[in-house]
Amino acid sequence: MGTFIAIVLAAVLTNNFITVKTYGICPFLGVSKKTSSAFGMGIAVTVVMVLATLVTYPIYTYVMVPLGFEFLEIIFFIFIIASLVQMLEVIIRKISPSLYNAMGVYLPLITTNCAVLGVAELVIGDMSSILGEGVAMNIGWAAAYALFAGVGFTLVMVIMSGLREKLNCYKTHKALAGFPIAMVTACFICMAFAVFSYIR
Amino acid sequence: MNKYKKITLDGLIYQNPTFMLVLGTCPTLGLINSAYSSLGMGLTVLVILTLSNIIISALRKVIPGAVRIPCYIVIIATLVTFARMCLEKFLPDLYDSLGGFLALIVVNCIILGRAEAFANKHTVAESAVDGIANGLGFTFALTLMGIICEFFGNGSLFGLQIMEFKIGMLSKPAGAFLVYGLCIAVFVYCIDCFERAKRVKANKLARENLLKEAA
Q1: What's the rounded Cα separation, in Å, for the pair B17 and B41?
Q2: Chain B interface residues facing chain A, Cβ-Cβ under 8 Å?
Q3: What pTM, to 2 d.p., does this model score?
Q4: Which tens digits make up the pLDDT trace of A183-195?
């Protein structure tokens, strides 16, 4: 239970993917103009992150490590993620067209999203600072970490899109309009999230 | 020759991947708290981008159009794996400071973007020049912001302590966002002023010529 709470707090607040690790910035800046699209993107990223971790973690631990080709992890992971996204797109289109309309448009963008490859790389690395002493990594913790990292990602996306919707009502200098003002806004979100780093 | 000059200027300034197109933001924001790691990241991307551009443009007639993206990803992932092995062996301290971002070069939009937008339509020489120009543009932008962030955030330059005064926020992601945003604004503003001055000069020249002709 303690480990679970540690994972939730670390993934959502103290080690948030956007504000602390700066993974997945492209969708964060590109798809955060409207709250509805930001939420859809966040959910899509979360789903793909969990599924990708559920596939890559066992393949890495039970196939690649015993056979001794860990050095191919980047090629394997990116291929698994790309084919997973393609498969998910086909399945969702077949099962639920309405869900496809809401989420499907974001799926092709996710293949080249650092957050998904980032979480797959993180969970096979050294996680002892988050899990605590003496807790071995397993697929359950890996999936939980991916899930809550996605929740943290969605949270920041939604906050950012709310701020940007408000920001549209004001006139900014021509040089600052667009990305620069979005980044200055992101700076303030990061500062707010930096407070959570005092949680121990 | 003019063609190569245009490609170089586009990559370095007018379509600078970091400031004008805002691509490859994750490693930029993650690494500009230190000038050394941002310079290392820039040079790694420069090498990988140039090699991937050369390979992809050499294979552009062989790769079938429908599956080109997976092919590009395999080529880039192979290059990144090589780069990772080389850095781990020869520059272990840089390897440590780049951390997870080294593996994430494979999903860096600059490399895939140049492959898709440039290398699959142009000759090998042009693609090589484009790769070097874009890589240098990326390196220049990253190193510039790395120097700003490290100097004000940590009081040091390339690890060398210079002053005691420091603004701690600038060495955190929050400061990286702030510096990146303001750098884009300044860069866009300068280019805007430069273009306007050029246009005014051209207009003045045209008017003088017209007056001379009329006289």
Answers
A1: 14
A2: 22-23, 25-26, 29-30, 70, 73-74, 77-78, 80-81, 84-85, 100, 103-104, 106-107, 109, 112, 169, 172-178, 180-182, 184-186, 188-189, 192
A3: 0.89
A4: 999 999 999 998 8
